[in-house]
Amino acid sequence: MSTQVKEQTEVDEEEQVSPGERRREKKRQLQREREQEILDAVDEAEQTVELKIFRFDPEVADKQEPRFDSFTVPFHRGMTVLDALIFARDKYDSSLTFRHSCRQAVCGSDALFINGRQRLACKTQMGELDWPVRVEPLPHQDVVKDLVVDMEHFYDQMHAVEPYFDPDELPDGELEAQTQSPENREKIKLSTRCIWCGACMSSCNIAAGDNKYLGPAAINKAYRFAMDEREGSDKKADRLRIIEQEHGVWRCQTQFSCTEVCPKDIPLTEHIQELKREAVKSNLKFW
Q1: What fold does the segment set 152-171+180-283 form as a domain?
Q2: How far apart are CA 47 and CA 99, in angstroms?
Q3: CA 34, CA 28: separation in Å to the nearest integer?
Q4: How far apart are the first and last CA of the chain?
Q5: Distance CA 10, CA 274 (A)
Q6: pLDDT in the model for residue 112
Q7: Contact 206, 254 (CB under 8 A)
């Protein structure tokens, strides 16, 4: 067969393949290349780690039953759990779903249940964990998909304490600052570190059993404003009434679980106890 006839035959055969089949073949080829890329990365790695990741998707029939999928990830020094999750998503399964944003432990979006403890995935070093590493969504929250939980109730509780200033007086000058003493700033400094990650709420047994409980994060936010000397006296009284309700500070049983899992080292239990004392003092009357 001449070269010209062979080329014409190949052209005729290609024209007989439908556009849809060509797209599917291209997709299969990309899949083969991706699988080979993963094998090469794993083979070249000095060390690998196994991830066991919780999977659940209510919109896909064969994924509605919760399960764990395993992924082998190349390990390197300084690798975080978030790095490993991103590798698993980008290289193995693009449908793997989890939240992340800043990757610097200041946005709070990637709080997960890692090896049986609430942690920030971007802050948690793979090298400091027992292997295989088990990654699950935050407990006591409704799972939306895979590692993503519904945070709406958590945000509602945070807003319930009215987390904003309402001072009695404002500075006279338009550009004059509303000053705060260094001592008062030091007192509330740790409470301002909250990044709304929800780890403390997820760890709290009281919050798990009482859906109306404000929870440690919201109460800490109330502390941040109530203990600020710039807070208005009327607003502070209103705020104390909010947190001393039936599902407020008095529901706390001082288990310290919230303090133990807080990624910003906020003494949440201590702040709750101090607000209890403030609530008692505000109700004392002397004649």
Answers
A1: Fumarate Reductase Iron-sulfur Protein; Chain B, domain 2 (1.10.1060)
A2: 27
A3: 10
A4: 115
A5: 82
A6: 98
A7: no
For position 15, what pLDDT does the model report? 60
So what's the pLDDT on residue 274? 95
Q: Which of 117, 122, 137 is nearest to 57 (CA)?
A: 137
Q: Where are the domains of the chain?
A: 35-148, 152-171+180-283
Sheet holding 117-120, edge to edge: 67-74, 48-55, 133-136, 111-114, 117-120
Which pLDDT score is estimated for 38? Answer: 64
Fold match between domain 35-148 and domain 152-171+180-283: no
The one-letter code for the residue type at 17 is: V
Residue pair 219/251 in contact (Cβ under 8 Å)? The answer is no
Give CA torsion, residues 248, 253, 258, 264, to 10 deg.
70
CA 124 to chain centre: 12
Q: Can you list the residues of the chain whose pLDDT is less than 50?
A: none
pLDDT of residue 96: 96
Amino acid making up residue 48:
T
Name the fold adopted by 35-148: Ubiquitin-like (UB roll) (3.10.20)
